[in-house]
Write a structure and sequence with these properties.
Chain lengths: 132, 132
Amino acid sequence: MSRPERSMRSALGRVRHHGAAGEGTGHFIAMRWTSVALAILGPWFAVAASLAIRDGGYTATIDFLSDPVNAVGVILLVVTSFYHMSLGMQEVILDYIHRPFTKVLLLLLNAFVPLVLGAGAVFAVLLVNFGV
Amino acid sequence: MAGALRPEDRPISPHLSVWRWHVTMATSILHRFTGVGLYGAAILFALWLMAAAAGPETYAEVEPHLTAWYGQIIMYLIAASLAYHLANGIRHLVFDTGAGLAPADADTSAWFAILFGIAAPIGLWALLSFGA
């Protein structure tokens, strides 16, 4: 935070919380590192999974997920892609949705849905490997 | 200011009714469109993992959708979206370094991204059908 007397914001703007939130850089960097990770994980999963699980069958799916390298890869894919898509959808919501209630509701959903499904998906991979 | 344009030569503010179709415009729209589509794909991906972890009975309810005609079309669209979003995402990472922003270069890379989005799922299908 810059000292108030050096800020270019007006006193009224500061009181009303207008202006930059100061969180843009973190969002930008997170979007970049997740996209670099996904540029590797995405094509790997698309090719490896479709070659290993051709017919989408149960046994082939379990066999694929039981391989330690595949399990770690899928967990990394889930975590980075869910984070990446949440960041991206946040931008889309802020760009197109202007009604305050709808906007906040969608932002909350966009924060929780990837978190819940991501936790579920990671637990699912662990369950396939360590479950009874 | 020296070298200032005469008023009629200055760039005018964006007029939303005066525009022409441009491939870089299409890539920008497609990037958002495929990004939102892949959000849905990631939700299906998480549900698929959870169904596999839940056991053969639950998975048996999911499997017919994977092999059905609509499932295959959705898989194709997911593969195409992933390929396009990947190629255009790499394009954006290059743009972030300040390179490739000249209109001619941006046009060329835009066509490459679109072409990759079309060619990659066909390549994956060929690999699965005729390859390894």
